[in-house]
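Please, why this fold?
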Amino acid sequence: MTVSTDPADPAPADPAPRRTLRSRLMDVARGPHAEKTMWAVSFTESSFFPLPPDLLLGPMAALQPQRWLRYSIGCTIASVLGGLLGYAIGMYLFELVGQAILTFFGYAGEREAALREEYAKWGAWVILIKGLTPIPYKLVTILSGAMAFSLPIFIVTSAITRGARFLIVAWIFQKFGPGVAPVIEKRLGIVLLAVAIAIVAIVVALRYLH
């Protein structure tokens, strides 16, 4: 299965409006409505919003390290619920809405076909691995619905992969503080890919031992 590790994939460098939105999110992370905003971003990012909730989760965990677990769990729940919206878009509104979202994020045509092929071949592994990587998770949720993937398996694997991602991000920031942000932004894709590989290795080992 092909997995991208480039934090900029699939979209090119952020345009000015997105950079402005990113800056605003970073400001919100220090304000009184940070947690509610993080829930909203985590929910919508799973279906259409362009920026990941990590931008809020990391700074919030650094500023209030005693709440890192609460923040990561809340972020996970919101992401899984938002994933259900993405699933519904793919199942019921793919031609009208879902296709436009995939096109916006650079997954139209051959790239969409390649992702569908991966889905047909690997199933739940696509959700587990791509949910950890920098690839926009909305692509996975929308295609899951479009391909009528098992909803119970979709929910379970979404909870596992998003939970692992957000727990790692929140733990790192609460452990090392806001100064680690520049390093994490550059290396997060590699770290999460290593975690994905570890998860696959553990599952394979357990199946082999049994």
Q: What stands out?
A: The two ends are 24 Å apart (CA to CA).
